[in-house]
Amino acid sequence: MSFTSHRGQFPHSRPRRLRASEFSRRLVRENRLSSDDLILPLFVIEGRDETQQVASMPGVERLSVDLLTAKAKQLVQLGIPAVALFPVVDPSAKSDDARAAYDKDGLAQRAVRALKDAAPELGVITDVALDPFTSHGQDGLMNDAGYIVNDDTVEVLVQQALSHAEAGADVVAPSDMMDGRIGAVRAALERDGHANTQIMSYAAKYASSYYGPFRDAVGSAGNLKGANKFSYQMDPANGDEALHECALDLAEGADMIMVKPGMPYLDVVRRVKDELKVPTFAYQVSGEYAMHCAAFENGWLNRDAVILESLLAFKRAGADGVLTYFAEEAAQLLQAQ
Ligand code: PBG
């Protein structure tokens, strides 16, 4: 068919018409990214005035508690509603029973107190999982056969979540994928006077290779015994199972659910949001961050534009918010717009 055969006819519809002017592009825009959608993950270390670069995550620094509180105040100025806290403890604090996880004066607990003191309006989300504290780097307790045992792990997770709530955490976020932990944590929070402590469940968390740089960041990569987390994190091949996991966690008392990783799993975000219609978050994980940075550093992608486009895609997929290492930068970009 030649182009000339169309001459004299008009297309029934010209979708380009609304794209021709900025005013109408703005009017018909379906989704918007704002700083309200962003949660910044932060890595905290011991010491004073101490920063450490994370080699596989250019631009991401681990911060001592005093620097963390300074950062928190800047994040409030940028309109970021919450941070997700990840402690990086010394190898000497790691053990087979992960007892440092629920130490009232542990690094995470001290960081929570300092953050709530310095910037009370900033929501503090804590990670409930044992991997920073186990000598083998797995998220739970390991038996002699190398299997991560479920119910004994849940008991430790409950202690950990309670210690976070007592320190003042607004939200506890179990990222361990043990069965039944949301119900157990919810019951313990209710019982101990923390009825308003929220639970953001990493409900659909996949056994992903995109977490590599994070394991460097928290220092659990080198010592990860068993090499993978296939016996508790979800198989990347599965979609229906994510709905099942999310429904269970909601029934057990989760207030918000999360899908993780993010960009390769936006189909899961959409399905979860459509089916369950609850506050749904997604995590643009360390590997996604590292991949983007590699392309930016090589001049292969436009940094500012791609950061904002990647985050807007989460909104279009139905996410209510995104945990992203780009949160601070994205909020700065949005503020400058
Ligand atoms: C572990 C945990 C992981 C992440 C958050 N919490 C890694 C893992 O499951 O091995 C990954 C975050 C990221 O890659 O950015 N409880």
UniProtKB/TrEMBL annotation:
Q: Per the UniProt entry, what is one GO biological process?
A: protoporphyrinogen IX biosynthetic process
Alphabetical GO CC annotations of the entry are: cytosol
Enzyme superclass (EC): lyase
**Swiss-Prot/TrEMBL catalytic activity:** 2 5-aminolevulinate = porphobilinogen + 2 H2O + H(+)
The record's annotation in PROSITE patterns points to: D_ALA_DEHYDRATASE
Q: Which domain of life is it from?
A: Bacteria
Record-listed Mg(2+) binding positions: 245
Identify the keywords attached in UniProt to this record, alphabetized. Heme biosynthesis, Lyase, Magnesium, Metal-binding, Porphyrin biosynthesis
CDD domains registered for this protein in UniProt: ALAD_PBGS_aspartate_rich
Catalytic site residues?
Answer: 205 (schiff-base intermediate with substrate), 260 (schiff-base intermediate with substrate)
Q: Name one Pfam family in it.
A: ALAD
Query: Which pathway does this chain act in?
Result: Porphyrin-containing compound metabolism; protoporphyrin-IX biosynthesis; coproporphyrinogen-III from 5-aminolevulinate: step 1/4
Q: How does it assemble?
A: Homooctamer.
Family classification: Belongs to the ALAD family.
Q: Write the protein's name.
A: Delta-aminolevulinic acid dehydratase
This chain's source organism reads: Microbulbifer agarilyticus
